[in-house]
Design brief:
Layout (H helix, E strand, L loop, with lengths): L7 H12 L5 H24 L16
């Protein structure tokens, strides 16, 4: 398993409160991978703009 980049307890709490469902370990893994991809895209965008700071505009979420 890769490094966890989300707060597992908060994800589980949200899913439990909003859907009255449990959360699998695989869910936490895939969310962490998604966060990593978003961060890496943000880094590349900031670099392309000549910045050393990742900003909100560098994080593009396509499917929300």
């Amino acid at each position: 398993m890769a490094e966890v980049l989300v707060v597992t307890s908060k994800v589980k709490k949200l899913i439990k409160e909003k859907g009255d469902m449990n959360t699998s370990a695989a869910t936490i893994e895939i969310l962490s991978k998604a966060i990593e991809k978003l961060c890496l895209k943000g880094v590349e965008s900031a670099k392309a703009d000549g910045r050393k700071t990742v900003m909100d505009r560098d994080i593009i979420i396509d499917h929300i």
